C-alpha cells in the first residue's frame, strides 16, 4: 500500500539494479498488481454508486493486463519460471481430476532409500583427534 509518508521510498540508489535485483523487483511489481485488483474489486463490491463501480471494475481489469505483462517479463528473465508455473498447474490439474498431485520434490532432493540415520550415527563425527 502507499508509503508516501516515507521520504526515502522511491529514492534511486547510485547504481542500476543487477538482473537478480530486477527480477525480485518485478515479482514485487506483480504482487502489487494483484493487490490492486483485490482492492479495486472490493471497493466496487462495497458501493452502490454505478459509475464508481464501473470505473473500479474497469481499472481492475487493466491491472490484470499489467499482471500479464509483468509475468511475461519475469518468464523471459527467469528461464525456469515457466517450468515452475507448469508444475503448479499440473498439481492443480491432478487434484481437480481427483488424483494425487505429482511428487513436488526435485529428484536430487528426494531422500535415498536405505537405513535411516539416527543421532547415534552422528556421535564422534566432527571431533578432531
Ligand atoms: Fe497496474
Percentage of residues in helical conformation: 55-70%
Tally of separate helices: 4
State the separation between the terminal residues, measured CA to CA.
58 Å
- Judged by helices, strands and strand pairing, the structural class is mainly alpha
| Mean residue pLDDT | 85
Order of helices and strands: HHHH
Low-confidence stretches: 110-117, 125-129
Overview of the molecule:
The chain has 129 residues and is mainly alpha-helical. The protein has a domain at 19-79. It contains four helices and no strands. The protein has helices at residues 19-45, 50-77, 81-96, 119-122. α1 packs antiparallel against α2 (50-77). The longest helix has 28 residues, at 50-77. It is flat, with a radius of gyration of 24 Å. The protein starts with 18 loop residues before the first helix and ends in a 7-residue tail after the last helix. The protein binds fe (ii) ion (FE2). Fe (ii) ion binds next to α1 and α2.
Structure summary:
The chain is mainly α and 129 residues long. The chain is 58% helix and 0% strand. The longest helix is centred in the middle third of the chain and has 28 residues, at 50-77.
List strands and helices in order, with pairings.
Elements: H1 19-45, H2 50-77, H3 81-96, H4 119-122
Helix pairs in contact: 1-2
Bound molecules: fe (ii) ion.
Amino acid at each position: 500500500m502507499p508509503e508516501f509518508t516515507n521520504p526515502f521510498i522511491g529514492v534511486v540508489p547510485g547504481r542500476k539494479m543487477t538482473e537478480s535485483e530486477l527480477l525480485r523487483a518485478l515479482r514485487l511489481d506483480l504482487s502489487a498488481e494483484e493487490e490492486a485488483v483485490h482492492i479495486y474489486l472490493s471497493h466496487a463490491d462495497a458501493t452502490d454508486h454505478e459509475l464508481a463501480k464501473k470505473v473500479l471494475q474497469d481499472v481492475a481489469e487493466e491491472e490484470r493486463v499489467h499482471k500479464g505483462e509483468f509475468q511475461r517479463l519475469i518468464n523471459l528473465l527467469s528461464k525456469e519460471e515457466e517450468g515452475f508455473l507448469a508444475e503448479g498447474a499440473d498439481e492443480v490439474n491432478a487434484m481437480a481430476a481427483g488424483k494425487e498431485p505429482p511428487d513436488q520434490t526435485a529428484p536430487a532432493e528426494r531422500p535415498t532409500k536405505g537405513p535411516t540415520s539416527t543421532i547415534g550415527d552422528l556421535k564422534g563425527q566432527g571431533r578432531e583427534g
